[in-house]
Inverse folding.
């Protein structure tokens, strides 16, 4: 049964339909370099709220937990809340480095969660860290972040959102072909399963794959590039709700 990623439950399953050369766009964009994060940009603002994201009980883990500090919360004229968080990465009692994120459409009662590893089969010593934030209920959009921490340097490798609503929704599938805990490359795709509105059968849905992205480590810096046309499905299939959820 396939299950959409639900913030801290980040179930990342294998990609069964990697785009072929004929499916990929003919012109790929210039790889996007992903800037490193330094402590020079992380002044300790006063926290309005602090959540602890537990990642590992192993005291030798490079990162054991993260403190998510809500440092700003403002509403616009439409009462849409925008929040700013400072994420402090710790090894036991030692703060190592920080990152800042801005989240729009903040919902009171939203929660942070996280895990170590690129996929759910990754080794516990993986340098990848996944963090997620969202309201713990169906129908809410969750923000997700993939970090890479190695040699005392932190990079935000990728950011995406997911949504789950009673078995429908959209999520991200990350694929690590090498199965290495610290690979030099990997790729991902956006997967969505939504109701087929034009069909009289309310149980019929449409499965789509889009936005395949390749990631490559060059030296100590990750870069990424689109492998398919942005925001356009390269795979589409109709199936019933039961067929989708019974598929491996």
């Amino acid at each position: 049964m396939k299950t959409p990623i639900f913030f801290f439950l980040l179930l990342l399953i294998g990609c069964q339909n990697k785009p072929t050369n004929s499916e990929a766009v003919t012109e790929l964009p210039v790889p996007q370099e992903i800037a490193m994060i330094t402590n020079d940009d992380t002044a300790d603002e006063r926290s309005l709220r602090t959540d602890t994201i537990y990642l590992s009980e192993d005291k030798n883990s490079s990162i054991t937990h993260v403190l998510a500090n809500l440092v700003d919360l403002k509403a616009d004229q439409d009462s849409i809340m925008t929040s700013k968080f400072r994420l402090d990465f710790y090894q036991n009692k030692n703060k190592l480095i920080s990152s800042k994120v801005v989240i729009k459409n903040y919902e009171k009662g939203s929660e942070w969660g996280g895990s170590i590893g690129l996929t759910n089969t990754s080794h516990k010593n993986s340098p990848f860290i996944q963090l997620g934030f969202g309201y713990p209920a169906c129908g809410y959009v969750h923000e997700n972040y993939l970090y890479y921490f190695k040699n005392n340097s932190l990079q935000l490798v990728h950011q995406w959102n997911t949504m789950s609503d009673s078995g429908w929704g959209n999520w991200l599938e990350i694929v690590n072909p090498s199965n290495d805990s610290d690979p030099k490359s990997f790729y991902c795709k956006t997967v969505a399963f939504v109701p087929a509105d034009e069909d009289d059968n309310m149980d019929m849905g449409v499965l789509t794959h889009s936005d395949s992205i390749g990631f490559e480590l060059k030296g100590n810096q990750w870069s990424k590039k689109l492998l398919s046309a942005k925001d356009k499905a390269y795979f589409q299939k109709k199936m019933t709700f039961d067929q989708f959820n019974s598929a491996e």
Remarks:
- The chain has a mean pLDDT of 85.
